[in-house]
């Protein structure tokens, strides 16, 4: 994953490069992996939620989603900041798509039936980096909670 991201970020500044669907799926999955690790209790339900979100949102097969997840898990320690991922997402997605991504991130956080304070803080940071306001942050949370009911 890191090699894919390095290629993605090594495009010269003069060249406009929009990430493709696969690169967006990697970036979104990497954000979700960071969330699953923030409370030091990576749960199998969270990992399954990441796979389910990738399949639903990016129209991936289960095998492709699992491959992206495994790549993200293997390289999660190498990430230097969330901006590596949110920068590409901001370039490619509109506000509605970013809000759907945030809803998926909330679904991962809710997968283990509790929201840790570190998870909520990280989701807030991700929302800020995605330029989502408080209303969009709360709407994404409520939609994710409603989907679990």
Task: Describe the structure concisely.
It is built from eight helices and no strands.
Question: Would you kindly provide a written description of the structure presented here, covering whatever features stand out?
Answer:
- The protein has 149 residues and is mostly helical.
- The protein is built from eight helices and no strands.
- Helix 2 runs antiparallel to helix 5 and helix 6 (95-110) packs antiparallel against helix 7 (117-129).
- The relative contact order is 0.15.
Topology summary:
Layout: H1 2-9, H2 21-38, H3 44-58, H4 62-74, H5 83-92, H6 95-110, H7 117-129, H8 134-148
Helix pairs in contact: 2-3, 2-4, 2-5, 2-6, 2-7, 3-4, 3-6, 6-7, 6-8
Total number of strands: 0
Mean pLDDT: 86
Order of helices and strands: HHHHHHHH
Number of helices: 8
What structural category characterises the helix and strand content? mainly alpha
Protein traits:
single chain; 149 residues; mainly alpha; 72% helix
């Amino acid at each position: 994953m890191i090699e894919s991201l390095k290629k993605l970020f090594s495009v010269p500044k003069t060249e406009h490069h929009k990430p493709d669907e696969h690169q967006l799926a990697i970036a979104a999955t990497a954000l979700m992996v960071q969330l699953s690790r923030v409370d030091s209790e990576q749960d199998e339900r969270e990992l399954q939620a990441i796979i389910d979100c990738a399949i639903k949102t990016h129209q991936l097969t289960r095998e492709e989603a699992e491959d992206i997840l495994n790549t993200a898990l293997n390289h999660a320690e190498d990430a230097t900041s969330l901006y590596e991922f949110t920068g590409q997402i901001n370039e490619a997605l509109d506000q509605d798509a970013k809000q759907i991504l945030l809803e998926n991130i909330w679904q991962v956080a809710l997968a283990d039936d509790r929201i840790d304070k570190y998870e909520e803080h990280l989701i807030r940071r991700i929302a800020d980096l995605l330029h989502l306001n408080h209303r969009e942050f709360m709407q994404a949370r409520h939609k994710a909670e409603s989907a679990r009911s």
